[in-house]
Design goal:
CATH architecture: Up-down Bundle
CATH superfamily: Rhomboid-like
Strand content: 5-15%
Order of helices and strands: EHHHHHHHHEEHH
Largest sheet: 3 strands, antiparallel
Number of strands: 3
Oligomer: single chain
CATH class: Mainly Alpha
Length: about 230
């Protein structure tokens, strides 16, 4: 299923969401300009699970190993990788930003991205294959959307070989199906790396759960403040 748009009007302009999309696009064009230096760039700014594992053991410098937990979510491995991620972020991110507020949404996005990368590292801490892409952070946005707007209607394209019907489905079904699909794929792939055609399924699952838990924590904190 491919989302085309949601029927869920935002009350505010999603400046942070647009900014994130813009940064991802600009960084991708910069990647295209690097030619032979691209490999070194990816090794430096993408998450290498083995490096993070060494950092956790105190056997690697903190900054070089931890910095990619943030920078990796702005890198992409190809046009389809970038366009697919940005489509999901454009459709679902604006409403989450509208509900959380601009500053909180920016922090939320970064925490979800970093948390998703940590989950992927835990699934295969010995891997030297770089992990990159915004999908883990976007999965966190999906987790928040799932809880905030379960009844929102998602205009969805369903590819059926030669037929491509477009239907409206509720967000809880679309995102629930998405989560179950990631779970099934993670079970089949084990700790597969997000490279060479691989997908970081555990990062998707981790991001979704981190996003849902963080959203609940934010809403609970706000409610407690109102009670005081």
């Amino acid at each position: 299923m491919i989302p085309l748009r949601d029927k869920n009007q935002s009350r505010t302009t999603p400046y942070v969401n647009y900014f994130i999309i813009g940064v991802c696009v600009l960084v991708f064009f910069y990647e295209l300009s690097l030619d032979d230096q691209l490999g070194q760039f990816v090794e430096t700014f993408a998450v290498v699970p083995a490096n993070v594992a060494l950092m956790a053991k105190g056997q690697a410098l903190l900054l070089p190993a931890a910095m990619p937990l943030v920078t990796s979510m702005f890198l992409h491995g190809g046009w389809m990788h970038l366009l697919g991620n940005m489509l999901y972020l454009y459709i679902f991110g604006d409403n989450v930003e509208d509900r959380l507020g601009h500053g909180m949404y920016g922090l939320f996005y970064l925490v979800c991205g970093g948390g998703s990368a940590v989950v992927q590292v835990l699934s295969n801490p010995g891997s030297h294959v770089p992990l990159l892409g915004a999908s883990g952070a976007i999965a966190g946005v999906l987790g928040a959307y799932f809880l905030l707007f379960p009844r929102a209607r998602i205009l969805t394209l369903i590819p059926l070989v030669i037929f491509f019907p477009v239907v409206e489905v509720p967000a809880f079904f679309f995102l629930g199906f998405w989560f179950v699909l990631q779970l099934i794929q993670a079970g089949f792939s084990g700790s597969a790396d997000a490279a060479g055609g691989g997908v970081a399924w555990w990062a998707h699952l981790g991001g979704f759960v981190v996003g849902a838990v963080m959203l609940l924590s934010i809403l609970l904190t706000r409610r407690i403040r109102k009670w005081r």
